[in-house]
Fold these 3 entries.
Entry 1:
Amino acid sequence: MQTSADRQDRHQYPAHWEADVVLRDGGTARIRPITIDDADRLVSFYEQVSDESKYYRFFAPYPRLSAKDVHRFTHHDFVDRVGLAATVGGEFIATVRYDRIGADGMPASSPADEAEVAFLVQDAHQGRGVASALLEHIAAVARERGIRRFAAEVLPANTKMIKVFTDAGYTQQRSFEDGVVRLEFDLEPTDRSVAVQRAREQRAEGRSVRRLLAPGSVAVVGVGRAPGGVGRSVLDNIRDAGYAGRLHAVNKAFPEDLKDVDGVPAHRSVRNVDGPVDLAVVAVPADHVPAVVTECGEHGVQGLVVLSAGYAESGPEGRERQRALVRHARTYGMRIIGPNAFGVINTAPDVRLNASLAPEMPRPGRIGIFAQSGAIGIALLSRLHRRGGGVTGVTGVSTFVSAGNRADVSGNDVLQYWYDDPETDVALMYLESIGNPRKFTRLARRTAAAKPLVVVQGTGTAPQGHAVRATRLPYATVSALLRQAGVIRVDTITELVDAGLLLARQPLPAGPRVAILGNSESLGVLTYDRCLAEGLRPARPVDLTTGATAGDFHRALGQALADDTNDAVVVTAIPAIGEASPGDSELAEALRSAAAAVPGKPVLVVHVELGGLAEALSAAASTAPAAVERAPGTDGGAPPPRAAPRAGGSGPAARAEAPKGTDGIPLAPPDGTRLIPAYPAAERAVRALAEAVKYGQWRREAVDPGKVPEYEDIDEKGAARLIGELLARGEGLTISDAETCELLGKYGVPVRRALPAPTPDAAAEAARALGYPVALKATAPHLRHRADLGGVRLDVADEEQLRRTYDELTELFGAPEQLRPVVQGMAPRGVDTVVRAVIDPAAGAVLSFGLAGAASQLLEDTAHRLIPVTDREATSLVRSIRTAPLLFGWRGSTPVDTPALEELLLRVSRLVDDHPEVVAVTLEPVVVAPHGASVLGATVRLAPPPARDDLGPRTMPAY
């Protein structure tokens, strides 16, 4: 007889079921299969479970597990019987198992597709979302093993477990019999189950970041006794920022009798700290980090900021050291920012944490900043902190994260935190790489619907140290997909700050109509021209003349804001001479008061050689920072320096200073204060305004994104059968023309028939079958779709012309077997376009559209949308290419049937969305005529679909 151990040996250990997860409270746990080596762990785990929890699990008093129980619960075949455990520190904190059953409720094997499932969670870890995470993973395992339905029996008093099942979002049935609640539910993901899963993901990942940004106690590990060095600098920065929690200095080299370092309690080890430590900032050499991680884990530290370098950025050896660091920290349920990080900052008055290498605490404000590179983080903080650089510092920072190698905490996690952070109104991100584009796009879309998200995206080459999923999509395509998700894409740090300052305290414009007024006609005209170049609709500038007073500016701005034909106002100002000329502070107050009277429209200022106005605009709202000196040889890229001594209260060197609290920390502006951003150049102001206009339009459209239409003539099941038959021939293949026509036909996408013409006689016969006029085309790869090379001859009227044309082609390009000629019936004249769809392993399914021809290819004039595409997205896709006017009657041409084109796009989107085995579709050309659209050429590639981790259980990136 075959034993359970024998059966377990028959099935290889499913290592791909192992996963790290973020729990509801922000901590982490590891989920893995239970094996025969876990007997002692299981017994120890069970001993720590309360009698009540044991009773709920076994429906009777069950004080201890028998040897038979231990054998049963640790011996699995990984098919019909599976057990998973959630572990922290290598020890079990919860278990779940399923047993496949037949229709009679008895143990069974495949093809039975139902299983009983049961959980047990240690009491100390109940309420952390462990059971919900285990349910997601055991359901995914069951689906993989052909199980489609779970059944669970629960005592009525076990309300927590009943809630785990009912809240999961699966389609379920509930019954009550013999004092037991029986729950049965299908395991196929539903819209609700996916929504529940993603909401839990957001809460968990957001809380995990909050634990790092708002700790109640911090230990800096690696603090030197003498000033200087990374550890000592960070300790000083935390203390000088007025950190509201408990702070500890740690160094194993401290003398045993050392009690403090500059008043901060000193310890030789984190273990010696009396009380909890929420965050450890690690600034020791990489070789010493593992010992520090062990100390922190054993002391219950919740998270680490690892400043230490020498990891993946240094090469293969460092990359393996980084993997080991992440695995080590996750063993204890800790999350990591870094390694090679610059640090984190939180300016909230109840936190005031500057656990970074920035020597000065940024001014509190409403902008969140994420940067992977420390150098970029420094530059961003400097530009927001300084009054120089031509941009008025109209607001400050809420939180700052420099993730370094982002081995664990990434931009995705910080987005989850910012999404519902009440202290952050605008998110700025400098992303050198995007590790998970599919997830980032999903999170960005949701975040952008609530608050502006401005991103500088790296060029596509990931720095050393960054784990990035391979994508076959061009950089421009990824950028277009980010814009579709509501991301404000800019190209430089300057543009990032410019847009952020505008969006932080100005309302979104309701449209592209811009009023321009000021005391310089030439500057007004320059602003007008830049508005036109950015696609805005400016009114003629209003010239107030160089003699304009502050009152003139106030009246003109008030009138422009009150005019319903304006959506935004740009004020231009140059220095004026004369007794009546307004001073900087007087002009700033005039503009601020006029803007405050009509608060629904954004106002921007373009100033030339008028630095005092930039200062005054901020000072009028009491938000100017202290004066600072620029570090020699830098241009906004140095760390925010210490405040320079003031030379007096007047003169060009004097700076307005922000009011400060009793602790010396600059006060944030009152909530709702109307802060006006000022720019040193018209193009910078207009570019920021144009991005705000586009984002405002996206926000309005996002309220009603449209719907994915249903088409009654789509044969989804027939297409699935055909795809299955074709894939049975091989793993990946480009199917034949006939098979392509059959598959597309099942989704209502007819392809105009083309017949092979290997000889002149065969061409004539094909033409007679199709009817004249016809087209004769060479389909060899180097001539396909290349009418410009002469490989396509149109409007062949009769057989004589056909034979003559055939001879011309063969004389020009070679023998028929090289040309692969075909004959095709002529389609109605129109505009040639190209439709493509591809499933990218990193970004997901993407639909692309553009006009056919070399010009569009050279200009890269192609638009993209994520699949599934809604009707509104299809409409915008057609109109978003630069050559779209050719579809709508440009220069007196006849407009083409764009509704037919949009329907074609929607049908292709449905095909790829319904059948992920369709990994690539190309329709070229699609001739869009005044009535209808004709597909003249099509190719389809099939392959097993890429794994969809966004539909699977929640997991952290694997290490």
Note: Confidence is low (pLDDT under 50) at residues 1-10, 387-394, 621-671.
Entry 2:
Amino acid sequence: MAQQHRDSEGKSLLVLGIIWLLGAISDRLWFALDRSVPAWDQAEYLTSTLNYLQALQHPQWFSGEWWTNFWLLSTKIPPLVYILTVPFLQLFGTGGDRATLVHLLFSAILLASVYSLGVQLFNRQVGLWAAAICVLLPGLYRFRLQFLLDYPLTAAITFAFYCLTMWKDSEGRRKKEEGSSATDLTDVTDKTLLEERTKKKYKFSPSHTPPLSPSSFFWAITFGISLGLSILVKHTTVLFLFTPIVWLAVGTVRQKAWGRLGQLTGALLLSAAVFGPWAKTNWLLILTGGKRATLDSAIAEGDPALNTIDAWIYYGQHLPEHISWPLLLIPLVGLILYWRRRQNSSSILHLNSCRWLAVFWGGAYLINSLNINKDDRYVIPYLPVLSILLAYCLTLWPPRWGRQIRWGTIGLAILAMLFHMWPLGGAFGHSLVQIISPGNSSYPYLGKEWPHREVIAEIIDREPYLQSTLGVLPSTPEINQHNLNYYGALANFQVYGRQVGTNLKEVPQDVRSLSWFVTKTGSQGSIRERIKKAQNAAVTAIEKGEKFQLEKTWVLPDFTNLNLYRKRVQPVEIQPLNEARSQVELDRVTVAAKAVPGVALPITYTWSGPWQQLQSGLVLVTWQNQQSGDIPPGQTLRILHDRAIAQATLHPGMLEADKFAVGFRVVDRTAMLPPANIAPGTYNLQATYLNRKTGETYPINVPAVSVKIETEPLDMRSKAELRNENKAPGNEDNTDKPELDLVTQLRAMAVNLPKGLPGLEPVFEQIGRINQYDPIQDYTLQAEQALEYRLQQEPNNLELAYALAFSRVLQQNVESAIVALEKVTQLDSKNPYAYAYLAFVHLYGWHPKAAQTALKPALALNSNLPEIRVLNGVAALMQGNLIQAWQDLQYLKKLKI
């Protein structure tokens, strides 16, 4: 008998493997012929896989800093899918089609989980039919053919649900082995039966709770790990598993099965330990990003409001698109026929199993309907559970013709899949398949290739030694910032694509800050009404202005034109020299002889030196007033212009190593900012080289050059001061002058930090903008290293201390930011906002007690500041002091945010 059981199981597993293989062959054939480019989300996720591929080239498993940076590579979206894709990229190479090989792994997990659930809840026949249905569901194969997180999430949730089911049934299996009939220990409907059986068996025991079986511990641990991993795929996992977890928790409480409740609680804590490191590192961005991904997207897309019936029937209306009519109706007919011929209610088989699957599906449906942002792909994780119910209903057909019905249903589903995946039969075939399986088809694109690789190659060909940021103005599924950025990442991360021209006020800064732009004729894609004016202004400035020239045009497959524009005067130019150089030299400085305070001053530096030192070099540039005597109070006698050579854009590209043996000359066109409180006079140049990798420094010989700061008219000074107070300094709408380098902009923004929230508002407005210009945010590292050096020379300089803390906060480097802010509180001890910043970073790092300690001096200085009281309330809440938290959080009403 046991041998027969093993043979049957082996055959079932063989059939399951064949189902997986046939699905894999179908998918890989589709990918082999498809020549499309990834759309927005797909391209963003593919780029993230390349980021993790790069990070895992040289892992430092025992370095806490490395792990922090590792988790920061994906700040809003959990990274497990990207990490699991890396081995496939290492084995088969990079590229969109190769990245989707990871779906073979997730398909195996999904089919094995569905099969195992079917066997556990019903029988092997149901498990195999459910696995076959999973391969044929339109709602699944449409997203199996795209590199999105929803299909991996479906596999992860199904596996976690399987582990939860096995834990739920573990005690029932133990009792069955002990001779009693199986029961679901944690099923809320079995309480009376359970109590009677428990009392009989354990009536001489001091406790009525039976001992926990080893298998229940195993499945509790497995569920905890699988739940944590599923959340690391996508945090919407909780929308699907919340209801069954609560169902079981209520059941254990009603049955007073405290050991089981402890197991379930332990499993949840274990899951938190799995996803916790990533969530702890990025929790604030997860929360802020969640609003954009739900409320903002729902409003923009016109999703139905929750107070309408459409919001609650939305996913029900889309079930035929997810499942197809044959797979939906034929099993339901089988269920109806079975129901009519049953002898009595007790003849209904597997009622508990059906109820358990209904708990999962019903809860997932309701909770996802509560999500105001609706999309078909958000609910596909509940489809595998539906496939099990449908497979069970298929087996309920009368035996006389049940076999033919099941195979006929699967045959129709296979035909529907073929017609949806391949353009068979032309328009007639498409119309025909819509009758039995409505919804969008997923044909492979077989036409002319899109020119993304050519665009990136053209930029690299023109600037082989530089990293470039490409401003992308259109946003269509085929031409957008994400897929151009992805193809730039494939080219050794030498080109980054970023969407700009979305804010009318910032268009002049966008045009000044970037050297490359792409525009497109015809439809501009998903450009929302509020940014159309900004995009039109940017297109006009680039296509009709005199600062850009048309570099190349491509005719796209949709018969529109893609235009690549390049700035006529490049901010950075680099060329190899005939001879080698041993150190960095400043050959020439071009700057206006006169300047006024608070107004950006264009300047061009010409550097030369060996490649390694130029690429790794920071230059600490000081324009110093040489006058002697007392300076007026509140004035400064220098201009700082610390930054990386070539704005840290030097990139080796694909060039051979021997190409870098010679020296290079770098022409660096930028602008510096004389402080608004600078004293009039003549300022001479001083420069020091700082190697970012080794910390080596040496003085740089500079040419004889000076700038005279003149006393400006009163009206000009007041305008400059007003600008500096309300926005980041720059050249206003003047596109003729270069933009300030980003390190200077960072230091200028940091000046506002002592003002608290009023000073932070313009900072928040500008950070997102300048992060677009430097896609890897290297300017924060440049600023940090330069400011560290400056503070070693001037340890009591408050302005530099604030700027250093600001640079570290922008990097989300909690520990080093705390050190910098502690220095700020020492230098600015009478300012309550200094302590507020320190407390906020402590809270961000989950140090509530340290945050409360940091706030004590601030409360002593001004106990009525809403910002201080709210932070104190949050610190109290995180420590469980609910009364103190309630009192302090009342000040939220007074915050002007």
Note: The chain has 35 helices and 16 strands.
Entry 3:
Amino acid sequence: MASVAFCGVAFASSASAQQASTEVGELVVTGSRIQRPNLEASQPLLVISSERIEAKGQTNLADALNDSPSSGIPVNPIGDQGSFGTGRNYVNLLNLGTNRTLTLVNGRRFVGSNAASLFTGAGAGGQVDLNSIPTGLVNRTERVFGTGGAVYGSDAIGGVVNIITKTRYEGLEVNGQFGLSEYGDAEEYRTRVIGGMSFLDDRLNLMGSYEYNRTEALAFTDRSVTNRQIAFANNPLNTGPNDLIAGAILIQNRRFPETTAGGLPARTGGSALSGILTIADPNSPGGRIAAQFDRTGNLVPYQTGVFYQASVASGGDGLNLAKLSSLRSPVDRHVASGFATFDVTPKVRLKAEAFASRVEAVEPFNQPIYNVSIFGGASAALRMSTSNPFLSAQAKAAILAQPTALPADTASAGDRIFFLNRASSDIGNNKTEAEGDVYRGVLVAEGEFDLFGRAMNWDVSANRGQSRGSFSSPNIVQSRFLLAIDAVQDSSGAIVCRDLTARANGCAPLNLFGEGAPSKAALDYVGVQFQAEYQIDQTVYQANFGGSLFDLPAGALGFNVGYEYRQEESDFQPNEPMRTGVGRSAAIAALSGEFETTEFYGELSAPLFGGDFTFLGMQGLEVEGAYRYIDNSLAGEDEAWSYGVRWKPVNDLTIRGTQSKSFRAPAITEVFLPRSPSFTSATDPCDSRNINSGPNPTARKANCAAAFTALGLPANFSLISNIQNFTVEGATSGNPDLENEIADQWTLGFIYQPSFIPKLALTFDYVNVKLTKAIVNFNLTSILSTCYDSNAYPSAVCNRFQRGDAASGVQAGQILGRGAAPGVPGPLSGFVNAGFSNFQGFTVGLDWNLELATIRGFDRFGGGDPGTLDLNLDLYSVREQETSVNGFGTDLNRDVGEIGNAEWQWKLESAYTRGPFSAIWTFNYIGESKFNNDFTLETRTPLTVDAYMRHDLVFSYDFAEMIGTPMGLKNMRARLAVENLTDQPPPYGTTGLGVYDVIGRYYKLGVTARF
């Protein structure tokens, strides 16, 4: 049972290659449109068979693709979700970005599901949601790395994923599977039906599938690795930048000490914990202790924990963010597909493909609406008076009895002013619900004919897809919130809103003293439902003509020429509350845009040596080339090209290589985004934890000192920048003048199949990608780095943000958001062709199909049939992975060896099969990784996390021989999969989201019956 094949030649032990070769006479290998007699390819090609997906009980193609070490950190339902991307599943080859991986189905484009918004959690582009593609009729999945633009067009920067479906199917298959974690949660359900039948003397074949898949939710509190809330915090033992004492250390039980869900009363709107109001300490007669509101509205003791810095304490009663964070968002999928093939003549066929899916997802936990002293604007601490009638008698008396009297409330004699810090998870929890439908239909006519004695082939196709859906979440109307918290008693003693007009319009007073205190009437008054709808339309017309031109000594000169017209339209429509920004979030602008592209392409493949035409050191040599002309209505004219070579110096060894130029066209979001408010966080170079690091530490420190001096602050001002943990409001916009991203790519490798070891193949491929003119949203981190890490300070880019001066109190030195002070617009960002990315790495593959009976002595076991053993090694090593957003390199981010980009990763899969029984053991290894390459022993400890090892085990058995063939049963295979057999958690210091397994030991039990 083969699982994964590293292909460059036809390989007998690859189940996928065997199956494919029996279904069609010639193959079109991903990375080329020229028909070939086998799975030969010049570029690195990784094939995952449907048998492997089925055997491991993988219910989503994303799981199978992300199982490979060369797949980068994906966008998936694990962890924090984008506001308009909940539950999505996008693959990320070589970690170059999900929008730089092209996903095809049967060599044709599939409509994307990435809404035209900045807040999807993924880069702008046409990413295909793999939730929308069924697993049932998939034959194999092929991946090509570091090439593809000349053959397929835009987006093939990291590579191409091509999902190839079966061409014919007869019979009926029913599949059911249930999954459950070691902890009794994270349930998963899958049911699937596949059917097919041939008619008209096998000229017509109809086949289809339907599958339902559901995964249940997990919270951070459901797993110890996330519930323990590990975070870096300022080291209290640190004395300076040169003391060899780390500036930051890891702590556990991180809490947000400035606030709670029930509320903290404070003397001022400042952030110092010393300003929290106190009550008599019940455990220390005569002593005082900080106070918080309990669920009854009374003041009770508050433990601040061990304070390290703003928003970070260890332990205590502060806000526990684990309770407000989703570990896995539940996804509900209905996916159907249908295929028809009709042989009009023996050499002319009509085909049709249809896909339909419904995906629903929820991000069940999310951060709430804040009113906290360390924030500004509408999220700052709330000014309150002891005259508020919602205050309990106990709480009012305690506030009035402060040892140092609070400021008097001039509007109410005898009352005092205080401030309330509250994380209002009982008002607006921002829980996002998403639903999406995808429809796609393809009509194809194809055939073969002879022209002047040469074999020719052709196809024409029309491809129409639509993705549409909505996202919704609860929020508040800020103006109503302010009216509702201003409560008084009327003449009857009832608590009402102070403002008479608001009262007449239905204002219900809002009680904020204690978690759960708000009434339903108040929640209905202040609440609002945010909703955004999106629609993406894709239309593609394509024609191909190919075959052989003439014979060369080693074979025919193959060619293919083609034409493609593609139109993409995207529409994103927030409802009125979102567009007008009535809540705490930035106003979300509507966006509509479209583009069309007309493209012509061609390929040649020339076998120069091989077959009967060989000599010493030249058993085979084939060269190939491809060219594509592009005329994009937004980015204008461009070209892509590639050439490659396969050389066999001896029969056992093939050396292969490619050189190519690929591109990514600007996405609709990047071009058409109107100037829109945005909330942003950033890494601040002038933060005291960062000021001595970065690409140019000397310049950074000097420039920050100059900035502080200009603000009226000391040159050595020690800034703890809030922007690193919390967002401020700014603005961003699209750019109609964007050009294509350009990638220069090359690959070099070999395939070694020693004739003296049957069915063994070794592969090696080195991949190099240099991406220039990268389209980047020039975000605040890049702006700040460009400003402070430059030798020419201040530059124009420094005008894109403002800091608070010495007179601004708690905002001194802080990055100011929109409205934080009169005339402050907030940070300004936008899309530009500025960045670059460099990638280098290699893959090593081993495939060995070993018939155990061929090993001396083994034929004595199992009655002469000891079974077969398939070994597959997939090793991936990153040698260079660096990105600069500003294009100057001053913000160069070197990711090699960091978490998610370990220098060494590998997977060893061993499959044993004998008769109806099979077992698969998979061992995954991720090498030791760094938190950040910029960290030093002076700035952080620890610097690394340990290597990670995970074991999976699958057993399956075909019971058909035991139960016979009732109702035409052909086979019935049951399987038990145990993922993460040793229940290995992520390395200490990281939650491991998107990199390591966070679910823990997981059991899957499934049955597949074929009739």
Note: Residues 6-25 have pLDDT under 50 and may be disordered.
